[in-house]
Known about the structure:
The complex is a heterotrimer of chains A (about 100), B (about 525) and C (about 500).
Chain A (H helix, E strand, L loop, with lengths): L5 H10 L6 H18 L2 H4 L17 E2 L9 H5 L10 E4 L7
Helix pairs in contact in A: 1-2
Chain B lengths: L3 H4 L4 H10 L4 H19 L2 E4 L3 H13 L11 E5 L26 H8 L3 E6 L33 H8 L5 E6 L5 H7 L2 E4 L19 E6 L2 H11 L17 H9 L8 E5 L9 H16 L3 E5 L7 H16 L20 H12 L2 H14 L5 H24 L2 E5 L15 H5 L6 H6 L3 E8 L6 E7 L5 H19 L24
Parallel strand pairs in B: 2-3, 2-4, 7-8, 7-9
Antiparallel strand pairs in B: 1-3, 4-6, 5-6, 5-10, 9-11, 10-11
Helix pairs in contact in B: 3-4, 8-9, 8-17, 9-17, 11-13, 11-14
Chain C lengths: L8 H7 E12 L24 H4 L8 E2 H13 L3 E2 L6 E4 L9 E4 L6 E9 L5 E13 L3 E6 L8 E7 L6 E7 L2 E2 L5 H19 L11 E11 L9 E6 L2 H20 L7 E6 L4 E7 L9 E2 L10 H9 L5 H12 L3 H9 L3 H9 L4 H19 L9 H12 L5 H12 L5 H8 L7 H14 L3 H6 L6 H11 L6 H13 L1
Parallel strand pairs in C: 13-14
Antiparallel strand pairs in C: 1-10, 1-11, 1-12, 3-6, 4-5, 4-16, 6-7, 7-10, 8-9, 12-13, 14-15
Amino acid sequence: MSDITREQVEHLAGLARIALTADEIDTMTRELGQIVDNVAKVAEVATDDVPATSHPIPLENVFRPDVVGETLTAEQALSGAPDHDGSRFRVSAILGEEQ
Amino acid sequence: MTDTASLIRLSAADLSVKLGSGEVSSVEATQAHLDRIAAVDGDVHAFLHVSDAALATAADVDRRRAAGEPLGPLAGVPIAVKDVLCTIDMPSTSGSRILEGWVPPYDATVVKKLRAADLVPLGKTNMDEFAMGSSTEFSAYGPTHNPWSLDRIPGGSGGGSAAAVAAFEAPLALGSDTGGSIRQPGAVTGTVGVKPTYGSVSRYGAIALASSLDQVGPVSRTVLDSALLHDVIKGHDPRDSTSLRDEWPSFTDAARAGLAGGALKGVRIGVVKELNGEGFQGGVKTRFTEALDLLTAAGAEIVEISAPSFEYAISAYYLILPAEASSNLAKFDSVRFGMRVVPEGGGTVEDVMAATREAGFGPEVKRRIILGTYALSAGYYDAYYGSAQKVRTLVQRDFAKAFAEVDVLVSPSAPTTAFPLGSKIDDPLAMYLNDITTIPANLAGIPGITIPMGLAAEDGLPVGLQFMAPAREDARLYTYGAALEQLLEQSWGRTLISQAPDLSSTEQHAATEGVI
Amino acid sequence: MAKADLMDYDEALQRFEVVLGFEVHVELATKTKMFSDAPNFFGGAPNTNVTPVDLGLPGSLPVVNEQAVRYSISLGLALGCSIAESSRFARKNYFYPDNPKNYQVSQFDEPIAYEGEVEVELPDGTVFRIPIERAHMEEDAGKLTHVGGSTGRIQGAEYSLVDYNRAGIPLVEIVTKPIIGAGALGPELGAAYVSTIRDIVRSLGVSEARMERGNLRCDANVSLRPHGQEKLGTRTETKNVNSFRSVERAVRYEIQRQAAILASGGTITQETRHWHEDTGRTSAGRPKSDADDYRYFPEPDLLPVVPPRELIEELRLALPEAPVALRRRLKAEWGFADLEFQDVVNSGMLTELVETVQAGASPQAARKWWTGEIARLANARGVEPSTLVSPLHVSELIALVESGDLTDRLARQVLEGVVAGEGAPGEVVEKRGLKVVSDDGALIAAIDEALAGQPDVLAKIRDGKVQAAGAVIGAVMKAMKGQADAARVRELVLERAQA
């Protein structure tokens, strides 16, 4: 059984900015443990002499010319915004009371 | 021949002929499909959104055709679009609550191509949330029901597109395939689906799941139809850096070549030992063996291939995908688009982000984000993500070795027929095994097709056969796929899909129990 | 927050060894952004300079700007770096509202340039070799404005507004290796280093490098360790350092602050600090917790950059002279005394002088105006001299003085007009009618009028009291509103006296 702990899951949820409930953390700790046990075997065959492949089809030097294209209008840019002031996106305070 | 019942049964190719000759108008064809959707989608739930612009688009095509304007082969043909693709005139939710009602300010490149080719978008189809799943049960908007048996899953993540096509709600659909999301639903709904070579179809505007695995592809009832659609969407896109610059042959021609007869003579076909049925449902194995016999009878040579790295493919996949997805899904944070949930009493923007993502993401998505975050985090990268990328190299090497000996590989497209709704939803690992035959192609970037290969004896449900070809050799899928499809239909005396139950009868209703 | 204790600077250096590091971000002056084809310019109404890529909309994908890569390679070469045979982009994952994808596309273990060295000359002539660890490409974030709260700062703000115009602008981040052995010169070295980087990028033409516009940003890292200890001390990173002087002051402050803490038995918190120009202090920002696990991985949406050898050589051949070598050459060519030249370099106007001389002015005249009147005007307004007037206009002004069309005093008025935006020097002269009157006839008429009021001046001059001419000259200058060449007026007056 892998050693994924509840504290780890809480930490990961923090990194991922998801406010998991206590129940979810419990379930996920168990489930992740099982999954990780299962997938960890990749390390068995991933020896030093095997290079990693991050792109299935190798390409290189893919560029675009430094030429201006079309931009969105501010209206289009803001069209999906949950909250805005007509020209900028609005979010609640970035830090808490301290700091 | 303008009644709904007959119009909707036409393949896209046949409909295209009738549109071209003027026998049928696009408005008639579109109306027929809209009527069909109205009649059966209450039970099937393939669609999340039906377009209110479809008839106008169809009318415009008819007008231009009447004016003598030269139009492409699929002009005026209706099509369903998986909700993972951005459409400027319809919501694009990727099956998630967090994007409920979001209308993008731009079209995906493939959608632009559809419109330029004058296809008629009918609406957006249902899917597992953010394409994570093999049953469409993880859609935030309720599952889609398999038209063959409404209490069963239609496959996933693209169950909506496959079901729409299987239920004759559309002759064509677009899907996306990251680990089998086009091919596995194709198998369990008795339809055709193709995952193109990675990079051969643009990903711009396809809401990303796993960037190095995702591809958009065609969904249809016949191989020729998928080829026709693939010809529309293929090609280099300067907005997608991973897009290939290759000139592609006509896949329509490749499919027709397969239908012309004799295409399988001398073809070397590899059967992958590791994908050949251990733990697979009996009916799947039986039909697969029969299909191999048909291929042999047609002059093909079956060769056994070993790909030892495939044993690790699912594990590698379930590390690479969550890692990339955890990063791709970070943008859903309540700031620029989508849902925003403010915790009681307010909070900092961080609190709002966390509350939004908690409420807006479903359980499978959260699971994979956490898993992916873990795989990338400090101290774990080498063992997990880093190692998985090495397995990917090994998988590519096994494919390369195989294709040095054979022209194509075959396997069942899924290990089972459609399972009942709710039966695997509490067991993530069991759910992941649905993709065992489809995942290797995504890891390697090579193309794959599923074609219906029959019904399983024990439950009368469809099973599919998968062809895989070397990267860039998508044409082989169409030639050999069409050839086998023809042989199978000859042996049955009819198409497989014609054997699907009649949905408009009163006996079939979505079961209210067991539906998530 | 309690004001920090500061140890006396000299004492701090006696007790501790200072180790410095600088991260300089250079905004590249390409036409479009790093990964999208939105225009790359300063200003514009909020959120009007964005594509789906810059907003991080679902489905959007990055595509690399070819020119940005060329500029980055040139910059790497100018820093004495090796250029990577194969370079990759990586995702740096962190959540922040100005980060549209909540990851930044940057470079991690395969930067475009690595292992370089930059020569930096201090005001007193000491030359340091600053080791460069790497230079890599990345994209900028959007801009946050904090509302509510008393200072417009983040503390106590009620809400924040986000403008993504800046998101995606191409940046090159230059990271030094730990800089050891600067001793008491550390703060000045920091300022000189940033100034040198500025000169390099401007001479390459890859960036406008205006710190006040954010084209050039510096984070200063400071740590202290007891003399002789090998292990590096805990470092702080200070941001919001917006001018060369701020670099110097911030480094000095941190040395003093950290020394006081360490001397009293405390420990330094590893954190990002914020420099306050007005109070001359740094304050604690967000603590660098382990929540900042960036989970770098290769960017799957982008492909490796493999610069062809021919391109690298082409760019290497096109490199301009390195700043220290350039300075040596110019000082010799211009024939400036050491102090004169140092004056120019220290005031950061070397480039302006070079361009003014290129436009035709003499080096001394250029120096006189840039370090004199223009610097004075700039200081009074609290801006960089280069923002007030262009080298071309300065050279035109100098030409007008040298041709006798303007006196020095008139030229200063013309300069004010140019700075006020009234046009080129020639245009200002026309509009304001400031030209020196060179018509002797007009001068004589004015002299006659002046003499009419002071009839005995001519007699005094004939008597040998030449200085009596001064009263007439003064009167003439006043009558002509200064638009006369005083020396010529004097000549004419004396001639009249002989006549």
